[in-house]
Design goal:
Blueprint (H helix, E strand, L loop, with lengths): L11 H18 L1 H7 L3 H15 L7 H32 L5 H19 L2 H11 L11 H40 L7 H15 L2 H11 L3
Helix pairs in contact: 3-4, 3-7, 4-5, 5-7, 6-7, 7-8
Length: about 220
């Protein structure tokens, strides 16, 4: 018979181990939020959403496909960081050569290195000023400063890429709209006419290849 319950703690070491397990379970429950905020997922999913909006294809590709593609590209981009964490933190911890605190500390350091490479100094200075901490050197900035600075840096970069993606499709919309007006076809929706031309332009330019390449290379 399987019994689930709490036993009395006789030694301080047992209490420490129980708290470590509780902390680990808490981290696992927050894993989706951590994945979104401290990896390349934010930039990738925003750019893919901009691409679909620029094409004006409504729900094509569907949200499940966009999120799945964003996750796959995130795993690809983060693979070197996660391999480093696995080799120097998770592996030694599972083999008993490294304590939980040391493993978590190394994992945090590895992820912070990735975030700091993508974070603008202006954003770091903003949150360091709000937190009242010194940023000399930047590598020693506390994690509570690095994470929000990284997120808004990623959002800015994603919006810049989205603007560039929108431009050629905006030109197509303007050409189609002006053509219909010159022909006196005011009752015909320009969006319906421009949609196949935008899809054709995207296919001829091999758009998904270009976007995936630019997204991945932007993290190198």
């Amino acid at each position: 018979m399987l019994q689930i319950g709490l036993k009395a703690v006789d030694k301080p070491e047992q209490l420490s181990q129980a708290l470590q397990v509780l902390a680990l379970l808490t981290v696992l429950s927050l894993a989706p939020a951590i994945l979104v905020l401290v990896t390349s997922f934010v930039r990738i999913v925003v750019v893919l959403s901009f691409t679909r909006s620029a094409l004006a294809t409504q729900q094509v590709p569907p949200n499940q496909v966009l999120v799945g593609l964003a996750l796959i590209l995130t795993f690809f981009v983060m693979a070197p960081t996660w391999s480093d964490v696995d080799a120097h933190a998770i592996g030694p911890y599972l083999s008993g050569d490294l304590g939980l605190h040391e493993a978590l500390k190394y994992s945090e350091t590895a992820v912070r290195r990735f975030m700091l490479r993508q974070t603008r100094g202006k954003d770091l200075a903003l949150f360091s000023g709000l937190a009242g901490v010194d940023l000399k050197p930047e590598e020693e900035a506390p994690t509570r400063v690095v994470i929000p600075a990284f997120v808004i840096s990623e959002l800015k970069t994603a919006f810049e890429i989205g603007f560039v993606i929108f431009l050629p499709f905006l030109v197509v919309d303007m050409v189609v709209a002006s053509t219909l007006m010159s022909m006196g076809m005011l009752m015909l929706p320009p969006m319906m006419i421009s949609l196949p031309f935008k899809v054709l332009l995207f296919v001829l330019a091999d758009g998904w290849h270009l976007i995936a390449r630019s997204l991945v290379s932007g993290f190198r």
